[in-house]
Each structure stands twice: as C-alpha cells, then as structure tokens.
Amino acid sequence: MLDWTDRHYRYFARLITRDTWLYTEMVTTGALMHGDVERHLRFDEAEHPIALQLGGSDPQELARCAKLAEAWGYDEVNLNVGCPSERVQKGAFGACLMAEPELVADCVKAMRDACGIDVTVKHRIGIDAIEDYAFVRDFVGRIRDAGCSTFIVHARNAILKGLSPKENREIPPLKYDYAYRLKRDFPELEILLNGGVKSNDEIADHLTQVDGVMVGREAYHNPWLMAEWDERFYGEAGRGLGRDDVARAMLPYIAREIAAGNKLRNIARHILGLYQGVPGARNWRRTLSDAALLDGANETLLLDALPRAPRAEAGCA
C-alpha cells in the first residue's frame, strides 16, 4: 500500500473505526537508516492501535528499525515478505524472501530480541510456480520456530518476474483454503487472511476459519465499509458518526496540517471514497480532485464538496 496508507489516510480511517488495527505503508530499512525518520514514523496518537510495516532483509538493520518502532510508540512491527515488486526484489526483500526461510527466521529473531512489541510477518502462499501447500506450511513452521506467532497470509502466489504489482494482485488465483489449512495445522498461531476481500459478509465468512482479515484496497476505495467493523467484529460500540460527521471531523486535522505547511491535495486524495454509493457523491469527488480548486485551498473546501443530494442515511447530518 505504498503511497496509500500514509498517516493522513490512517487518521481518516480512525474516525470511522476505533478498534481496527491500522498498518503503515511499507517503510524500508534503508529509509529509516539513512533518511528522515520523523517523516516516515510520525503518526497521530489517535491512530492506535497501529503497526509499522518494514521492508528489509538484513537482521541487524531490521532489529534497529524494530527498536525505533517501539521507541516511536508503535504497537506492532510487521515484516513484509509478500511484496512482489521487481523494484523491491532489487533490494533483496519482499516476496523473494520466501525462498530463504532461514534468513527470514534470523530477521524475526533479531527483531524480537531488539524490541518488546509484537513482531509479525506478512507473506504470500508461494512464489512463481511453487504452488504446493507444503511450501507455505514449512515456511510458516520455520518462522514460528523463530518466535513469530502472527502471520498475515495473502492467499495468492507472488510471480516474481513478468507481472506488475497490480497484476500480482489479480492474476494468480486466490486460494483461501491455504490460509484455512494453516490455521488447522498451527492452531496455536494467529492466522489472518488477506487478498480480494470486498464485503463485510465475506469477512464474517472468513472469520469462521481464521483469526482475522486484512482488507487493503477495498477499505481505501470504499472506506465506509469500516463503519460497522467495531460493532460487528469487535463487539464494541462504533464511533456513531455519519459520513458528514466524519468529513467535518477532518476539518481541524486539515487546518493543523495546512498550518504546518502541508497541502490539502495530499490529504484530500485519501478521502475521495467517503461517499461511495451515496447520491451526490460525484460532487465530493469532483471538487476534491480538481487541481485548480485545491491549489491554495484550505479545509473549508470540504464543506463545499459535501454531496448536495438529499439522502436518508442514519447518522448523516
């Protein structure tokens, strides 16, 4: 979710759901070792619970970054062993690491030794033509032995050459049963399923087989999907905000960001889907994606962008 689940999107998502775990976009160890740590790790306290997702393959560097994650207040640090991007592979991390379970185990152990927060792993079910369930079973078993107890399973193979990251999310077939089998084979582990989930009913169905579900792009494009998660999946009272309430709740945040030198366009792009499926949503999307209107605009542009068509959504102002 590079360039998608940044801190602006996560603050927005937290206005919709209070209990859902939020994950950062993947941050490389190199970016933290040699770049602007504050830019990559800063987040709002409202974002808890929040996990930092790391990309890397050097155990010592990952250990230092895990320690940084703990120092900055993250609740979890997640090692990405699932990204199929060729650019990521050139850095010797991502899905290609599934071919080196001993190295991944060393990375996980080093991270666990360096910090006191949970260390989790996100991975695919196979790479290239390796489609045998035994491959992912043995991979998970080896990483479990290194001390990892939570695995996020993107239920597709990663094709390391010849497919773009987008094609890797669409062409390799989904095999949810592999994640289900992992839970049966490792009942002591926390197994979360990822990939292709588009509805709350689908989430509910998967939760009869695994411990959790990670939703990525659907939650980004259709964020109101999250509005019932607290009550339906956590047994907690929801935020009780309607879509208009969420839009207005973003105003103070945007004002602070603009005062700090940020641009409205950097935040507005993440909230275009708020009114997905609601009459009048086009005005919202059109206004907040208009470069001329965004240029020099402040938070009040959101009020001009609110859908004008009457609607009968409970909780909407």
Automatic annotation (TrEMBL):
CDD domains: DUS_like_FMN. It catalyses: 5,6-dihydrouridine(20a) in tRNA + NAD(+) = uridine(20a) in tRNA + NADH + H(+); 5,6-dihydrouridine(20a) in tRNA + NADP(+) = uridine(20a) in tRNA + NADPH + H(+); 5,6-dihydrouridine(20) in tRNA + NAD(+) = uridine(20) in tRNA + NADH + H(+); 5,6-dihydrouridine(20) in tRNA + NADP(+) = uridine(20) in tRNA + NADPH + H(+). FMN binds at Q53, K122, H154, N194, G195, G196, G216, R217. This is tRNA-dihydrouridine(20/20a) synthase. Catalyzes the synthesis of 5,6-dihydrouridine (D), a modified base found in the D-loop of most tRNAs, via the reduction of the C5-C6 double bond in target uridines. Specifically modifies U20 and U20a in tRNAs. Its EC number is 1.3.1.91. Belongs to the dus family. The record marks N80, K166, R169, R282, R285 as: Interacts with tRNA. Keywords: Flavoprotein, FMN, NADP, Nucleotide-binding, Oxidoreductase, RNA-binding, tRNA processing, tRNA-binding. The active site is at C83. It comes from Crenobacter intestini. One of its GO terms (molecular function) is tRNA-dihydrouridine20 synthase activity. The lineage of its organism: Bacteria, Pseudomonadati, Pseudomonadota, Betaproteobacteria, Neisseriales.
